[in-house]
Amino acid sequence: xxxxxxxxxIVTDAFPQCRDFWARHLGFAVVFENDWFVYMQADGAxxxxxxxxxxxxxxxxxxxxxxxxxxxxxKDAEAALAEVRASGKEPDYPLTDExxxxxxxxxxxxxxxxxxxxxxx
Length: 121
Known about the structure:
Layout lengths: L8 E3 L3 H12 L2 E5 L3 E6 L2 E6 L18 E5 L3 H10 L6 E5 L4 E7 L5 E7 L1
Parallel strand pairs: 1-4, 5-8
Antiparallel strand pairs: 2-3, 3-4, 6-7, 7-8
C-alpha cells in the first residue's frame, strides 16, 4: 500500500471546541470542515474530529471516552511548551524528564483526548 496520510478520528460532541483548541494551542490548521467533521494538519501531523451526529453513522467508532493518547514528537519540548504557554494554556502534566528517555508534557483537549508532546532524549 502507498499511504497518502494517516490520522485518528475522534468522535465527540465537542468537535468545534477541539478544533479551536488544536488551532490555538498546538498550531494545527483546518484543511477541511463541514457541520459534522473537521480535519486538521500541522507539520506532517494530522487529526480529525467528528460529531456523533455524523450523517452516515457507521457501525463504530463509538464516542471517545479514554484509553488513547496522541503523541506529538517534537525536537525541543521546552520550546514547544513555551509556545503552548504563549497561547494561554498550561500543561495538565508538567515538563518532565522521564527515566525512560523522554522529555515531555501533556495536555487534554475538550474531548478528553490526552496529548503527549514528546522529545526523545
